[in-house]
Amino acid sequence: MNLILRITKQYTSDSYIKPKHIRMSILDLDKSPNYPVNFVCNLPKSIKANERTPSNFSKTFGEKKIDVAKTLLNDALKTEDDPEIKAEIEARLKML
User: Global pTM?
Assistant: First the structure.
């Protein structure tokens, strides 16, 4: 699997200045170079070791979920220029 993060800002109709939230989707470039065909799952805001109801991310990556999340977030942090997105990436890395 050749995984990358696709990070998008979601705005509401009443506020175009500050995004409502930042969505991080995991893509597999081995499936296809085009989105949404290469969509795997979304990266959740918090990743717990023992989840009562496992997320699609946890079901997909199992025991490797923390390592996969750290790798994807660190790779995205190196290439991202937007300060709001960088702050969100750093916050998610701290939670891990």
Answer: 0.86
